[in-house]
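Input chain follows. Return structure tokens only.
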Amino acid sequence: MSRFQVVFMIAQCISVLYSWDISNSHRNDVILRHVSLYYLRAFLCVQSAENSTVTTLVESTWPENIIAIKPKAFPNSAFHLGRNKKDCEKIHQALSSDVDGNGYLWVLDIGSEHCPAKIIIFDLENKNTEILRSTLTGYNGKDLTSIKINPYTVGTADHMAYITLRAGLHLIAFFFHSRQFRKVAVSSGDDWPEDQVYPTDIAFTLDKRLYIADKDGNLYVTASMNTANDTEIKSNYLGTLLDQPRGLITDEKGYLYYIIPRFGAVVRWNPTRTLNAEGHDVLKFHTDSIIQILFGVRGSVWIAMEKMLTMRDHCLRIMYHFSNNAIL
């Protein structure tokens, strides 16, 4: 092994150990809510139960980067809530985010008792400049759960994202160009179990469709999602997942991954197989609360946890590559 390879491995280990150590800037009650990646940059939505004025949107380094950077407020501390809790221009509680193909970071801020929820979009390729913000009225921010961009509308007039709700009454679509929000109902194309679907989580497929899961663990799939200028989405029932899911995501082979919070399990379903226990691979059991599945560089698979691990980090690699069945 060359000297360069040794240095590279040591640097990578240091990065993995300390890149997400946010204990220095937050108290011990900090909870990780969501992570978005842009190359080797990581954007963390965090929450503190005891301190309502902490920074809730943090930029750090993805653990596979050679050089780690100290976590810092994104885009800077001036955007975050200070002593004036009624300042609705500030970020109150960043809950979820996503990055589109233009390098835009979409942030869902659920607001507070004093301020409504809002979406803020930053241009990561242009000095993290804010390029858009829009207020979401008529909803309690605590009822919102995530924001996910439709990757097949980027660069079109329908460039948009969906916001999911805890009760799953419908989806909320937000359109980039018009800056408008729209309720989007989901219905089933057959008679089981009923016409209306109550979506609690979604994931886009490689063939431009949308997986939709409801609170009972039923899984549906839509037709093509090239455009999204509709107030209703038609879906077809596929079957029932192993339990109520969280964190739906698909890989480059089209496999569907999700978390089963009740059992602390991460599982994977191959769509070419039957949607039952035999059609799933169990990838990981973990005692800590798993919040998200992520894909790192070169196809590695990671999980993120609410609480910090003993290695002073919130994430753990579970597979070196999604196409390899070797599980760590």
